[in-house]
Amino acid sequence: MTNCNVINVENGEILDNASIGIKDRKIVSVGQRNEYDFRSRIDLRGEFVLPGLFNVHNNLSNVFPFKNINLNESQGETVLRCYGEALKALRAGVTTLRTMGEINRADLVLKKAINNGVVAGPRIIASGKGLGVTGGHGSGLGQTEADTPDEFRKAARKELAMGADHLKIFITGGIANKEETFEEPQMSQADMEAVVSVANSKGTYVGAHAGSSNPIMTAVKAGVRSIEHAYVLDIDTAIAMKESGCVLVPTLSVTRSPVWMKDHNFENWTIEKALSAGETHLRSIRTAVEQGVVIGNGTDLPPGDLNDGVVTTVREIQFLHEAGLSNVEAIKAATINSAKLCRLSSEVGLVKENYFADLITVPRNPLKDLKELENIQFVMKDGQVVRNDI
Question: Hey, which of 37, 107, 308, 345 has its CA 20 to 30 A from 259?
């Protein structure tokens, strides 16, 4: 790949008039000259090259509005729906997805099909089914239900045995259910510790749907390593997250996407509940940013959908900027930080030798203006061109 400007998302430096050599799915050289004799070349015509984007909070199997979800749907139908969402995300420049609870464990099946070359798709880091209490937030979303530490321990072991890369738990109420609140605790610390202990025994971690500070603090004490949403977050809890190395995936899109919600036939009360949380949500994420909490990029909206005309994954990066991240920090959230969360930091997330060739390009420098990410022209995953509109 020649005639391009390579962005180092670690430090914001740009290597201009560069070439990138790719062989056997991986980057073998990045510089102003190539040392290899390549069979083919792609002229990128001065485009800026970045790592492929991450979206680390996805429920590919969800149906909107949520009341239309059919938990009796066959696994095959669920997988096909998930495949459609995943492929749309890949073409939009999202080369890695982390799933956070899927109906029928469709993500495990889809991940295997992609990895075996049966279908093309993004890199998938899969959770299998989410885990939550009977009648809790994940009820109706295909979760496995448990009500004691022993039941949660058994459920966690089952997901990992089925092939999950990490575990998802629902520890509070949320927006989707009318009667729930963000403060409502739905798992005890002992319940969380049971899931965490199983994850740790297999060398992985637990991510938690969590609405507010008190349950989040409990999750941090229990050893949970990623917090999803954090609609209400105080300084003390943010400090605790920072000190424990807990990553925050804000999903700001959830509370500031009225057009998308209307387009997907959400009921008025749901839209009003989401928007009413927007100001507090943004302030909470600003608190986390100010305290140095590591931020990942996830939407909880379909990763390749359009949100006010912008791909949701990109719109979330822009929301993170509004929450206080600099341009380069917001891009880091969708590359380096998310790669570390997914335990892929030595494989993807940088344009660097020996990394997989997951790459995107835009015509102008996105470090100066994040709106440039709305103009992705070229997508490559594993060294294979997915889209080339240059």
Answer: 107
CATH 2.30.40.10 location in the chain: 2-51+349-388
What's residue 47's pLDDT?
Answer: 98
Q: Considering the entire predicted model, what is its pTM?
A: 0.96
- Please determine, for residue 35, whether its predicted confidence score (pLDDT) is greater than 70: no
The pLDDT assigned to 34 comes to 63
* CA dist., res. 187 & res. 168, Å (int): 12
**Would you state the torsion angle of the CA atoms of residues 145, 344, 333, 78, taken in this order, to the nearest 10 degrees?**
-40
Written as one letter, the residue type at 190 is: A
Q: Which two tokens stand for residue 92?
A: 């939009």
If you search the block for the tokens 């070359």, which residue do you land on? 117
Nearest C-alpha neighbor of 330 from the set 13, 53, 91: 53
Tell me the C-alpha distance between 42 and 111, whole Å: 29
Q: Which fold has domain 53-341?
A: TIM Barrel (3.20.20)
- Which residues have a Cβ under 8 Å from the Cβ of 311 and sit 6 or more positions away? 92, 93, 94, 303, 304, 305, 374, 376
The two beta strands, 310-311 and 306-307, are antiparallel
pLDDT in tens, 192-226: 999 999 999 999 999 999 999 999 999 999 999 99
Could you name the CATH architecture of 2-51+349-388?
Roll (2.30)
CA 208 → CA 5, 40, 222, 227, 326, distances in Å?
A: 38, 45, 11, 5, 26
Q: Which long-range contacts (CB under 8 A, 24 or more apart) does 262-265 make?
A: 264/64, 264/65, 265/64, 265/65
